[in-house]
Amino acid sequence: MSAGNNEVYWITARNGQIPPNAIELGVERSGQYIYAARANYENGLHIGHVSLNSGGMSLGYGGRHVVLQEYEVLCGNASKIMWLEPRKNPGNSGIVPPSNILEAGFEADGKKLYIAKAVHNGNVQIVGKCGGHLSNGIEYGYEGQSHSRDKYFCLVYA
User: Which Pfam families match (predicted)?
Assistant: First the structure.
């Protein structure tokens, strides 16, 4: 995460646990809240989501839905962040990151990853990752599959 804002921070958790002060960022079909999570995977720090009693953090990676048991959850003061529709990069369909974007992870090659949210099948607000290099928009894992959407929002500092 970018330095300079200690009102949002990451807390380590495992096996579907949600720490106190976790920031609710989405809602599953069941009504369970979804929280941003990140974990080390394949030499990067990847972004996904977790919900209470989910068994772990879900993320989309390499066309697969991956579930990890150890992860960090975004916590803190929710009034310090907000969703913003990103400006698309015409060169590769990725995004041009706004100056106030919340940096949350990176690929194995060092490319930055950010927290994103999209609507899945009309009623699920799902959290995943986006970046200037990801041409498919947001990428996330849900219901056993990896998904992408080109209409999404990025998490930024308010």
Answer: DM9
